[in-house]
Structure formats: structure tokens, C-alpha cells
Design goal:
By secondary structure, this protein is α/β, with parallel strands linked by helices. The chain has 4 helices and 10 strands; from the N terminus they run E-E-H-E-E-E-E-E-H-E-E-H-H-E. The strands form 2 sheets. Strands 1-3-6-7-2-8-10-9 form an 8-stranded mixed β-sheet, sandwiched between helices. Helix 2 packs across helix 4.
């Protein structure tokens, strides 16, 4: 099913940065319900910084946020007032020569509105970058001792992919967030996707 666009263009591209991507993998994480202590978004930001990733695309926040619930910030930079909006920016990291995959990294903010349309924007990013796999990262509050290594669970709704990678099939039922909607949309587009969740 296709969803009508309310705004003409919500993904803004820097085409130059997409040249020469090798078998890219799209890794995404969003601040919000599925990002306890910002562990997931922090991991993606750390990867982007360590790999000196370059901006390749951004998603216009206007259609997706209730700015009375998450207000933009105003700052004074070199004497000029600058408004900082909730950001969903995508960066690309070209891996070392011996690595098989480049990374497309998106660490952003779970929007308030139009999750299906926002998921279409993310699918556009996956398709335009020719990403072969999407990995969503999350972090949950669970009763785990701080003295032991963090447990990371992986799952995929794709039976073949789950078997090949030794992942679980998801069994959760209940309220979901953007990540659940995104997985559903990616499945419909037959784009391979897995979820990794830290406790």
C-alpha cells in the first residue's frame, strides 16, 4: 500500500556522498520509548564519529513533530540566533578496504506524527543508498545486574534470515513504536531487516 505525501519533499539529499558505496548496511536508532538511557542512539552516534561519517540526507521535521511537545531549541552562535529543530540526519561511513560493507547511519528522534509516512522516508533512504540490510537498534529497561556483560538480543520476522544469523523470531504483542511500524513496512517492501536490543 502506498501513502499519499502531505509535503512535496521530506528527504533532502547530498548525492555526492553516495558515490562508491559498497554493499551498504543501514543502521538506525531513535530517541524515545525504545532507547533507554539513549544507549541505541548513542551507539550509532559513536559509530558515526569513530568512522568520520559524512552527511548524506536529512528528513524535514515539519510534517512529523508536534513542536509544543518537543520544542526546538534556540542558541546564540557567534552572536547569531540559531534554531535547532529535532533532527533525523543520515550519514555514510566508508569502511576500510578489507571490510565488505559500508555503513549508512541514522541516529534521530522518534516523530510524534505520521509514522507510516516517515517509514516511507526511511525506505527511500534504504533504496536510494542501495542498502542490502537494515538493522534497528534499541535499548530496553530490564532487571539485569550491572556486574555482568550487557545482553543483546536479536530477531527478524524473515524466517530465512533469522535461521541464517541465529536470531529469534519476534513474539512480542502490545503497544509498539516507530521501530515496529518500520519493520512492518520494510517487510512489505521485502527489504531484509533485523532488530538488535540491549537490556
Amino acid at each position: 500500500m502506498r501513502y499519499a505525501r502531505l509535503y512535496a519533499m521530506t528527504v533532502v539529499w547530498d548525492e555526492e556522498q553516495m558515490e562508491g558505496l559498497r554493499h551498504p548496511i543501514l543502521v538506525v536508532a531513535f530517541e524515545g520509548w525504545f532507547d533507554v538511557a539513549r544507549a541505541a542512539t548513542g551507539a550509532v552516534k559513536w559509530l558515526a564519529d569513530q568512522l568520520e561519517a559524512n552527511p548524506v540526507a536529512s528528513i524535514d521535521p515539519e510534517p512529523y513533530f508536534d513542536f509544543t511537545a518537543r520544542r526546538p531549541l534556540v542558541r546564540v552562535v557567534s552572536g547569531e540566533r540559531v534554531i535547532e529543530w529535532p533532527e533525523n540526519r543520515c550519514r555514510v561511513a566508508h569502511a576500510e578496504d578489507e571490510a565488505a560493507h559500508d555503513l549508512v547511519l541514522l541516529s534521530g528522534v522518534e516523530p510524534h506524527l505520521r509514522w507510516r509516512t516517515f517509514s516511507r522516508d526511511l525506505i527511500e533512504i534504504a533504496q536510494r543508498t542501495s542498502s542490502e540490510l537494515v538493522i534497528t537498534l534499541g535499548a530496553l529497561a530490564e532487571p539485569v545486574p550491572h556486574t555482568r556483560p550487557h545482553l543483546v538480543k536479536g530477531s527478524s520476522t524473515n524466517g530465512g534470515l533469522a535461521t541464517r544469523l541465529g536470531l529469534d523470531r519476534p513474539s512480542y504483542q502490545g503497544p509498539t513504536g516507530l521501530v515496529g511500524v518500520l519493520h512492518d513496512q520494510l517487510d512489505h517492501e521485502r527489504i531484509p531487516v533485523i532488530s538488535l536490543r540491549a537490556s
